[in-house]
Amino acid sequence: MNDKKLVSDLLTKSLEDLNNKTKDLSQLELVYQPKNGGWSIINCLEHMAVTEKFLLNAIRETIKARSVMPNLNLSKNDASILIKIGDRANKVESSKEFCPSIDNKNRTHLDFLDEIESNRQETINEFNSTQVDLRKKAMPFAFWDKVDLHQMFLVIGSHMVRHTLQIESVLNEIKTN
């Protein structure tokens, strides 16, 4: 499988999986607070909406502002990015700007799903339409000194996988109670 197809499939499939897991949930399921103190499902949806928009904007800014690095080759890190971002055993504390906010308390899960869908379509469009060699531009990113922009699209897809798994965990906890 080529690099471009991997990213494209990840971006598409992760959104499909999220929609399949969340579109028909009840209000009780959406707001259930896990016993471990983690986020509710609606909190996860809010987080995904905010985070993807931020990451896509960071990619766009890097495309505009950073120069091409012809000798850059970070592709050896692709697998570790997919694993580390998607791995729920690796707990990560989100920065405040990506955490659920009281400002969104009146929004529904369908509002967040619409925003996530819109963000994802923008992400896919940016990935498919950019003329820049994404492997030759880089930016700093948590866990790695820097990642290339191709890898940032892997991060976006893996981030959704991570939180879809979190949602599944919450739903499994609800079923056992």
TrEMBL record:
Residues in coiled coil: none
SUPFAM superfamilies reported in the protein's UniProt record: DinB/YfiT-like putative metalloenzymes (SSF109854)
InterPro entries: DinB-like (IPR024775), DinB/YfiT-like (IPR034660)
Domain DinB-like residue range list: 12-167
Database matches in Pfam families: DinB_2
Protein name per the record: DinB family protein
